[in-house]
Amino acid sequence: MSAARSTSSPIRVFTALGGFAALLLAAFFGWGFGDEHARTRYAVLEGIGAAKPLKSAIADYWLLNHAWPDPDEHAAMLRARVQADRYVAAIEPLAEGRIAIRYRAGADNPHPEIEAHTIELAPRIEGTEVRWDCRGGDMPDDYRPNVCRGGERK
Known about the structure:
Structural class: alpha+beta
Number of domains: 2
Shape: globular
Order of helices and strands: HHHHEEEE
Number of strands: 4
Mean pLDDT: 79
CATH class of the largest domain: Alpha Beta
């Protein structure tokens, strides 16, 4: 019986130390529980995800026609693919295949740091694929995903 107790004791100590180490890492790297900054960044990322159906429609149009859809001529087709979410006021097709994601303002958005800011997605052709650059718009870099920071690519 005492042998069982002595083998479980190191496991309990190791588990406790592992949990403590995880909390220290979270605090050191800013992964804190309840981190408002992280929740705001997640809201921005969720808005970019909401544009995925429109990105697909524009990429499909390019692959079939080797041209970007005119947002005025194809407004119904493009806007039918868009659904705003709890953080996004509008996702709008622009000229040259670009997409503007505009975040909600006022009481509708629980993250005042991003309200009324935009992220602009710009397509580019790489071989036979359409890739998206998300560095356009006026969203502060602090709230963008890492790949979307640094201003618009020229």
